[in-house]
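Notes, Module 5: Reading structure tokens.

Key idea: the token line is not a picture. It is a compressed description, and you learn to read it the same way you learned to read a sequence, by spotting repeated patterns. We will look at two proteins. The first is printed below with its tokens.
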Amino acid sequence: MMEDLFENDILGHIGTQKYLCTITWRNGQFLMDEPENVGGKDLGMDPFSTLLASLAGCTLSTLRMYIDRKEWIIPEINISLNLYQETIDGELATTVRRNIFFSEEISTEQKDRLLIIADKCPISKLLKGKITINTSL
């Protein structure tokens, strides 16, 4: 049997308030909710935004580690993400748009290398890999 990545499970709870979830992680809690246009109160990030936030944080951290190791002078890294879904041949296909930009010009060689490194972040690998969700009640 494979060992869990986290020592403690990520926990979620929802009461009777529509769509407002409390998520507990090793160091605290945060709220997840749905936008008002679908019945929530927009008190926290929705699940799609949370997924993209995971990819953003992982990408930025991975790039920072690489840039620092190379001793390149790139003081700021910025990222914007969005996604869209479409049905192709009866299958749901999801495309994530990830744009990375910097506070100053970087060389073409640096850009080429950092594009490769962005795809090596663990969340990128996870999202591009085979995922199995084992659900129990």
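Here is the second protein, with the sequence above and the tokens below, as before.
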Amino acid sequence: MHDRGWWCLAALSGALTVMAGAFAAHALHGLLSERMLAAFETGVRYQAWHTLAMLGVLAWRAARPIRGQYLVLGLWTAGMVLFSGSLYAMALLGVRALGMVTPLGGVLMIAGWLALAVCALRVKPETQSESGRA
């Protein structure tokens, strides 16, 4: 997937985050137990943070593409789908067995952050002549 596709995916995730948050705030109160509502809201929160993080990596990539950035984006995307998606499905569908998927999504998100650290360590410092400074 090229950068334009990743930008679109992040934008769609952001829109879904707002819709899910509004849905939780307005339609789910009184319909779900407090525990399931909290689980749904946790999914929204984690999706929001990782969507913002994706935008940061995409902006970094626009300025300085390096190997590994797509891996970070892929891990976070898979993590959001499994972590947030399983929480949404558990809350809305009542399928508690999906709770076994949630930790796997969390592990993928953590792996994305660790991959980001590796990317950052791979970046070689710019010399003064490369950065345009004399």
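Summary for the second protein:
- The CA atoms of residues 72 and 112 lie 5 Å apart.
- Helices lie at 3-26, 34-63, 69-93, 102-122.
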